[in-house]
TrEMBL record:
It holds the Pfam family IU_nuc_hydro. It comes from the Bacteria. InterPro entries: Inosine/uridine_hydrolase_dom (IPR001910), IUNH (IPR023186), Ribo_hydro-like (IPR036452). The keyword Phosphoprotein does not apply. One of its GO terms (cellular component) is cytosol. It comes from Veronia nyctiphanis. This is Nucleoside hydrolase. Residues 4-307 form the Inosine/uridine-preferring nucleoside hydrolase domain. One of its GO terms (biological process) is purine nucleoside catabolic process. The keyword Hydrolase applies. Keywords: Glycosidase, Hydrolase.
Amino acid sequence: AETIILDTDPGIDDAMAIMYVLANKHLKLMGITTVFGNATIEDTTRNALFIKDKFNASFDVACGAAAPLIKTPNGPTVIVHGEHGLGSVVADAPKSVAEEETAWQYMAKKITANPGEITLVAVGPLTNLALLVQNAPEAVSLVKNVVIMGGAFGENGHRGNVSPVAEANVHDDPHAANIVFAANWPVVVIGLDVTHEIACEEHYIETLRDHAGEKGRFIYDVSQFYLGFYETELKRKACYLHDPAALVYVSRPELFELREGPIVVVEEGGAEGMTIQKTESRVFSNDAWEQRPSQSVAISVDSEAVLNHFSDTL
Ligand code: BDR
Ligand code: CA
């Protein structure tokens, strides 16, 4: 099984991703590290602990960043994920407690103890991963893979969801994203280019409710609010499987097509949070991409197979 530390801001699709990783026997969830994003760090951490208790799960929880590295926080996305991050589901006071270490310290400890074994899957703002790179650079080369849900590269016509050019996770901390993309570890980016191809309909969620046990009912409960948000945009009750897609990639990489090239993020101004991959080999006189390692961006996906695999697993 692939050993995973999931860095997340639960978050409705984050909660769906957690249900999927718990159900997938080929993936072993070692720990969840939490970050601000869809909700405050207090709420995302509480939600992670609540899920751990509710499903009697054995993963660790380590609490991470409350705010981005440099920029002024955008604040919780209440219209998408509800008041406390899980739509209309309110987390009971958790019995489990978080680790003593902060998120990046927890990641550094586990990566060092298991060299070459751990895949980091990040589905929230990239602040914790950037802090890991800055504070424990020796851990970077010991990570097996980094799989990120974030960014948008303009493939299939998909650009942004918080601005015409920016995706929420990268827009929440563009400076952190730049640090993560510039680091010398193998990154696979699952952006809106492919997650906007993976829409599930209301009927799909109802089928999970009826046939996927307690996890399916939980997905149904949290996603009602999310379906309501997306109804305005999609003109029908449906939602995207953003965060689950990153974990599906770890289990079934053959369902995605990747493109190689270094990535730079726009840090400030109207286009802040825009992600740009350089795909040509030409060297320009002023080339910010030239200093960076080549990373992988998903440019197409077999969405039907992803949807089938996700529901089969659950
Ligand atoms: C990403 O932003 C958050 O709203 C979701 O949880 C997902 O990680 C999609 O842009
Ligand atoms: Ca998320």
